[in-house]
């Protein structure tokens, strides 16, 4: 919106510039919008929204309080268009849709491409789905219903049905003439897909190549090597991986018979990658699917199970400690020092695990280098273990004036960091082998192992040496 | 490569299909390549590489052992082309480049666009940089040297200098005629950028719109609203954010005088987002910049400092414990239970922190909703604290037959989970305010707080109640 026309209200024009400079909302923009809402000033709200990108309006809706949001949507009405709806986080989208009138919703939906409608509709409950479907033209409705018949998270859900195709034998001139005759081309397209007589995609040509070639050039002579196609039921994560790995901009999608049914573009793939990133980061930290706009009760409900699992593993570690009550009563220094061994093991394990989980996600850790990585992590754990063992031998001996305590903590440190390095790789690899997302469960397993091994090694050795 | 021509060697053709099916390397592909290398069979290696995408060849180079890699590069020679080099992880790229002859390197560089050459060259040491620059044509060399004069991580480093422009007053017909006359258009381009007489970009037109409009249509009448431009010295992270937020495909870059100097395309932005994401995941886990191809010593060296910081914070927690040696000697049950309080606090804090760090990275957590999020996290911590307090009151009382122990752990749990929720948001917010990457340091601060508070609350209360 760099060159958005200036409006008469100075604050809006200034707002515009500051939105543009930061590529994000600033506090002032939010405050001004809320002011307009409080005053019920639709004209001002319209002026404030005018220079804003749909994505920024969506962010604004996500950031305000739930009742401010309702007021805002009520006042904004048709300013919340299809683009804004498709940018909004799904957690609050339903809430926004419920506040809109059916007419506003219908208008909003009509301007969207089929993939965006599907993306919005799939998260709604059935009544709302029906309402949105009713708002669509018959052609769009059939397209959307067809898309919804594909499994969730499949290429079929991700694709748009609007495609630009040409028969294999066409020339550049044929193609340009044909396109000039079309009046509902997709909003964004980057390739003309070549199809055979049975409507199967065989290759594609970039628009750049078409435009820079003489009219008589056969399309078949300027096709791109990068061509890849996907089947409707392929997992969206695999599609996104391929877009990222092979730098695709768009790719055709085929049905089981190989016939062209749609096209996936890079913005769809980027959205999937973004979601997968967020999921990985959250799962590694034991956070489920949540967002900043969730209420307190929702996040309590979503985080409770993970904390519950952690409680069980923490109790397991305590049971291990309780096996050594004798030596703990005799030498209280052990109670002081034992968390250090567990903490260092937990951290080293988390380091190895994070690298392994990430490498599995980017498919850099495979059967062919797994053993090399396991060996490397074990060696690294052992080496760091030895380094910190020396440090702790001194600290332990000097702090408690008892060299044997230093020896015990040093040995436990080496053992636990070795185990941390090993389990940091082996746990995610094993989970992946059994088809469990390693991001989801690795953390709990790895820290349980390092806690149990850490306490057992430290207190067990202490029992042998100090009692 | 779906439609790669079949070769005579059956295994290769099969390989091809399996690479395509999995969108990644499989073990067999790697094993076959290593076999060919062991036999010094260049013909077979060529046949094996033929159907593979440069990105997959790069992955293969990353996955094999260092000496296998050297053998492979020596045999492959010019098969390691510019595209493969630009796909390779920078940690091993230098190693691969050193194995290539200067002639092979020169050939590889010559086929790349200026942004890819810059991306490769900026990580090399000076001697190597000189060698690569010498391999380039004068025009390319000047372009690359110019790009290297922009700060690291700036839009100037990211952009390619090859641009497709048109004066504002041109028509669709003018543009197509002009493009047909060009013989070195960029490999990928999606927009024609309109420039004013002083070579400042004012808008752009998608190729799709140009192709589907009559020849007489003025370009100025079919420009895109999505137009955004960047300055050469803007931070690449801001550029990538804008591409993602506003669904950009390409965007012009201007110098300080607003003149067009290059264009950034979505693949560059995706690469930046990917790097930033990896950095965040790694930093949250206390892992520096590392990759699977790093040697054992390299990862020991990179992880040691983080473990060192953790050791200091663990010792701090131990000092807190040592304040309560009396009560620990008197009631050994406390030593058994205390890690539970710290562990639950650490986990709850990590949950809040991860959500906050992620929201800061995606710019969803801003000044306008910070207080709401802080309140929400505090409330959620308090509620989960109360829930787990009830559980632990029972467990503690029954396990050790002493209701007071149950009371102590319950109260400590509530306190620590409240503190965990608060510090989980406040620490990242504070770091961000001081310009420190919250992903980098939040984890250490938050777990230090929850450890110290957890031990202090639990043992302190126990001293008051049980002694």
Automatic annotation (TrEMBL), chains A, B:
Its main location: membrane. The chain crosses the membrane at residues 304-324, 330-357, 378-399, 405-427, 439-466. SMART domains: MgtE_N. One of its GO terms (molecular function) is magnesium ion transmembrane transporter activity. It holds the Pfam family MgtE_N. It is a multi-pass membrane protein. GO terms for cellular component: plasma membrane. The keyword Ligase does not apply. It comes from the Bacteria. SUPFAM superfamilies: CBS-domain pair, MgtE membrane domain-like, MgtE N-terminal domain-like. Keywords: CBS domain, Cell membrane, Magnesium, Membrane, Metal-binding, Transmembrane, Transmembrane helix, Transport. It is found in: Cell membrane; Membrane. Residues 1-21 are annotated as: Disordered. Residues 211-279 form the CBS domain. NCBIfam families: mgtE. Belongs to the SLC41A transporter family. Homodimer. Acts as a magnesium transporter. This is Magnesium transporter MgtE. It comes from Silicimonas algicola.
């Amino acid at each position: 919106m760099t060159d958005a026309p200036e409006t008469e209200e100075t604050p809006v024009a200034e707002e515009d510039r500051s939105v543009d400079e930061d590529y994000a909302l600033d506090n002032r923009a939010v405050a001004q919008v809320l002011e307009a809402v409080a005053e019920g000033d639709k004209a001002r709200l319209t002026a404030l929204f005018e220079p804003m990108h749909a994505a920024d309006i969506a962010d604004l809706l996500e950031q305000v309080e739930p009742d401010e949001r309702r007021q805002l949507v009520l006042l904004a009405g048709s300013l919340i268009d299809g683009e804004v709806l498709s940018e909004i986080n799904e957690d609050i989208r339903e809430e926004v849709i419920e506040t809109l009138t059916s007419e506003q919703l219908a208008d909003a939906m009509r301007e969207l491409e089929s993939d965006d409608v599907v993306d919005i509709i799939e998260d709604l409950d059935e009544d709302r789905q029906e309402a949105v479907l009713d708002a669509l033209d018959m052609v769009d409705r059939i397209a959307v219903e067809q898309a919804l018949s594909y499994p969730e998270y499949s290429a079929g859900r991700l694709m748009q049905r609007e495609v630009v195709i040409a028969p294999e034998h066409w020339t550049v001139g044929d193609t340009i003439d044909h396109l000039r005759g079309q009046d509902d081309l997709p909003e964004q397209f980057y390739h003309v897909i070549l199809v055979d007589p049975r409507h199967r995609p065989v290759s594609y040509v970039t628009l750049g190549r078409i435009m820079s070639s003489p009219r008589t050039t056969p399309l078949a002579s300027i096709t791109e090597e990068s061509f890849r196609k996907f089947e409707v039921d392929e997992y969206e994560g695999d599609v996104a991986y391929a877009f990222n790995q092979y730098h695709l901009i768009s790719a055709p999608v085929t049905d089981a018979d190989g016939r062209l049914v749609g096209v996936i573009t890079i913005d769809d793939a980027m959205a999937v990658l973004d979601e997968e990133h967020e999921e990985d980061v959250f799962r590694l930290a034991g956070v489920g699917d949540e967002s900043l706009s969730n209420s307190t009760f929702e996040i309590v409900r979503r985080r409770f199970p993970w904390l519950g699992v952690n409680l069980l593993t923490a109790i397991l570690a305590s049971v291990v400690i309780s096996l050594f009550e004798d030596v703990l009563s005799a030498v209280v220094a052990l109670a002081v020092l034992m968390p250090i061994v567990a903490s260092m093991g937990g951290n080293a394990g988390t380091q190895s695990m994070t690298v392994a989980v990430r490498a599995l996600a980017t498919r850099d850790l495979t059967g062919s280098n797994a053993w090399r990585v396991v060996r490397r992590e074990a060696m690294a754990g052992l080496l760091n273990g030895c380094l910190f063992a020396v440090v702790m031998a001194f600290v332990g001996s000097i702090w408690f004036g008892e060299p044997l305590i230093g020896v015990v903590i040093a040995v436990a440190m080496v053992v636990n960091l070795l185990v941390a390095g090993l389990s940091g790789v082996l746990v995610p690899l094993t989970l992946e082998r059994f088809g469990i997302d390693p991001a989801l469960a690795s953390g709990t397993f790895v820290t349980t192992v390092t806690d149990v091994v850490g306490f057992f090694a430290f207190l067990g050795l202490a029992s042998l040496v100090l009692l």
